[in-house]
Write a structure and sequence with these properties.
Strand order of the largest sheet: 6-7-8-3-9-10
Structural class: alpha/beta
Subcellular location: Cell membrane
CATH architecture of the largest domain: 3-Layer(aba) Sandwich
Radius of gyration: 32 Å
InterPro entries: AAA+_ATPase, ABC1_TM_dom, ABC1_TM_sf, ABC_transporter-like_ATP-bd, ABC_transporter-like_CS, P-loop_NTPase, Type_1_exporter
Order of helices and strands: HHHEEEHEEHEHHHHEHEEEHH
Number of domains: 2
Strand content: 15-25%
Helix content: 40-55%
CATH class of the largest domain: Alpha Beta
GO molecular function, one term: ATP hydrolysis activity
CATH topology of the largest domain: Rossmann fold
Number of strands: 10
Pfam families: ABC_tran (PF00005)
Membrane topology: Multi-pass membrane protein
CATH superfamily of the largest domain: P-loop containing nucleotide triphosphate hydrolases
């Protein structure tokens, strides 16, 4: 920011300097011509003085116009960003259908994915079936493709090659409204609004949810224990981005949202990585409630949080390298066992 500000000031100063030099040069030429005219008695002394005074008065307006150009250029640069966003193509969605409830089955068939403008693929030849009600954890080093895989399920990005099926239907054939109504996401960075606790649990499509359902969701997420200690309970404002809450409390509100939505597919994206041990324990208790009867995908760096998963999928450089339960993968002494050993000894 400092370097950019210095660059802006230098550019602005140079533009004013150059314009004033040009103006002064032009004024000098005009005075020379006027002096020649005066020597030849083609112009009176009063006319010469009037012309010189008028020319001198042009300096200040020209300088102000140069400064206006600085603001104009900054505005054009900002406008370019705004119009680039406005001009982006809207998401393509098949015609709306009935908001049917999915069973939660997910099938990846030789799936490949690459981000726009990237030469190397983020995901390569992913083949995996997740049955309804199954809890599957995805682990691996940063950049292994875990979050990329999760972002394909709600169709935030389109599959480059292969197929992603939800309840044996290609995701490209499902209306976005129907697809996303059946998916709940709990991410590490919880988005909260400067509103009451109740409004943050029930927002968007769930804004008209009955009070008793909001309370039930908060209780199931183990959030009522801190909500009841607030001055106005569920009606207590939590500040911009939930600044009045701790990290664990914000996560439990996010889980309460997912419980209220009651979606059959839940994506839990590294939501406990920044929590202390006590907060993580509370969130884990909430998860045990949340995963009942739902297909759950858990992305986690802390391997201790996924030991109870039905299956653990180990990813490396966009590929699946190991699949199995915690005990099986430890016995294999492969990549998962090494990751687990590093975390336990670290």
């Amino acid at each position: 920011m400092r370097q950019l500000e210095v660059k802006t000031k230098i550019t602005s100063g140079l533009s004013v300097f150059i314009v004033q030099i040009l103006t002064a040069s032009a004024l000098g030429v005009i005075i020379y011509i006027a002096a020649q005219q005066s020597a030849a008695d083609n112009i009176t002394v009063g006319g010469f003085v009037s012309l010189f005074t008028a020319m001198g008065l042009l300096f200040s307006p020209i300088k102000r116009l140069t400064q206006v150009n600085d603001k104009l250029q900054q505005g054009l640069a900002a406008a370019q960003s705004v119009f680039n966003l406005i001009d982006q193509a809207s998401e393509i969605s098949p015609p709306k259908g009935d908001l049917a409830r999915f069973s939660g089955k997910l099938t990846f068939q030789h799936l490949h994915f690459a981000y726009e403008g990237q030469t190397s693929p983020a995901l390569q030849d992913i083949s995996l079936s997740i049955m309804p009600g199954e809890t599957v954890a995805f682990v691996g080093a940063s950049g292994s493709g875990k979050t990329s895989l999760a972002n394909l399920i709600p169709h935030f990005y389109s599959v480059t090659e292969g197929q992603l099926l939800v309840d044996d239907v290609n995701i490209n054939d499902l209306p976005l409204e129907t697809l996303r109504a059946n998916i709940a996401i709990v991410s590490q960075d919880v988005v909260l609004f400067n509103d009451s606790v109740a409004a943050n649990i029930a927002y968007g499509a769930m804004a008209e949810a009955p009070r008793d359902k909001i309370i039930a969701a908060a209780q199931a997420a183990y959030a009522m224990e801190f909500i009841e200690q607030m001055s106005d309970g569920l009606d207590t404002p939590i500040g911009e981005r939930g600044v009045k809450l701790s990290g664990g409390q914000r996560q439990r509100l996010a889980i309460a949202r997912a419980l209220l939505k009651d979606a059959p597919i839940l994506i839990f994206d590294e939501a406990t990585s920044a929590l202390d041990t006590q907060s993580e324990h509370k969130v884990q208790q909430s998860l045990e409630k949340l995963k009942q009867g739902r297909t759950m995908l858990i992305i986690a760096h802390r391997l201790s949080t996924i030991a109870k998963a039905d299956r653990i999928v180990v990813m490396e450089k966009g590929r699946i390298v190991e699949i199995g339960q915690h005990a099986e993968l430890i016995e294999k002494q492969g990549i998962y066992a090494k990751l687990y050993q590093v975390q336990m000894t670290g």
